[in-house]
Fold this protein.
Amino acid sequence: MAKKIGMFVWNHFTNDARVLRECSSLAQDGYEVDLICIHDGRDSSMPRLEQRPEGFRVIRVSNESSLLGSVVKLKDALINNRWAMALAIVMTLLGLWFVPVVMIPLLVATFIIFLRQIQTIYLRACIILRMVRAGMASTYDIYHSNDLNTLPQGYLCARIFRRRKLVYDSHEVQTSRTGYNNPIYGIMERFFVKRVDVMIMENHTRAAYSEERYGFYPEVVHNYPVPMKPEESDAIDLYAMLDIPREEPILLYQGGVQMGRGLDKLVEAVPMFERGIVVFIGDGRIKPELQQRVQELGLEHRVKFMPKVPMEQLLHYTKNAYLGFQILNNVCFNHYSASSNKLFEYMMSSVPVVACSFPEIQRVVENEDIGVCVDSHDPRSIAEGVNYLLNNPDHYARMKANCLVARDRYNWDNEKHSLLKLYHRVSS
């Protein structure tokens, strides 16, 4: 009888390539896989229950609360009506003076109404409980938590409510990561990792870091893409799509437009590029700031922006590029230790890279001779790397050929056996 896996991920599962690969591989290996994730209440086209063609099922839990919605509407009504607000304040003060005990739930409601952080915590708690309920709705043999924000759900299901196996798949370094500076994350992870059956990290630099913190060496499953040959398809023509002259090389960045990825330095470097049009494919928090900076520098004719594209189509865009950028900044150990799926996507499309000089990325780029490493904090160094690839056609041609050789090694068809091997061990 097939083993059943209940997997958790804290997103809508619309663009998560790694989780898609893992679920697909486990399903193809004979496991019954349910992926429990979050529904987007603003997207009416997003199904709550989805049977994927790859052989696994997606279960999405609501990210909304009718109680919280009613409370927020009450807050808005009070704010928009000064007389109602005044009456609410008077009643609160009178109640606090005459009937202090009755005021406890009223004070709690006041916190929920006016403190956004409390609203966020309440809503996240609702999502966690719904995930746990979904995880208990079937008799799973193994629970699989992707990243720290779903590890409590896996722990509750596998350890508190049932005696089942628990896999912790950490895609990031949770204790040194942009936006995760609160020490509570380190405390949480230290508690939970001692209570899992298997911990997975993305590369050996991160595994060594975890060994130093927790005293054991996690399993390593690299984040390599599914093998493809996008050069055999002409489905996407970026030149025509963006009205770029054919003689101009496309210098591509694809991925999240976020802080710490060297994108501000990239824009600053553009005036020093001897040729080429920079294209950003992706969305993110700092995209408006980058667009504004491009306008300030008068670079609209040399920098183009596109929204993110479906992950199954991405490599068909990538193949249009002359080179690709992977220029993370060393703002945290998570960035410094990254091996980055983006690097291997460029490789899969035979696109040489201008990359940061961080250990996992530099090792692949230089060992395979598929690009140049630069100081990703220095726009001048980025420009030197770009200009080298533009002005050395013989070496560039070798790099493109090397990408085609390297992609036969750095791909999911090879790497998935590491995942399946550890699952066979856990299953037994």
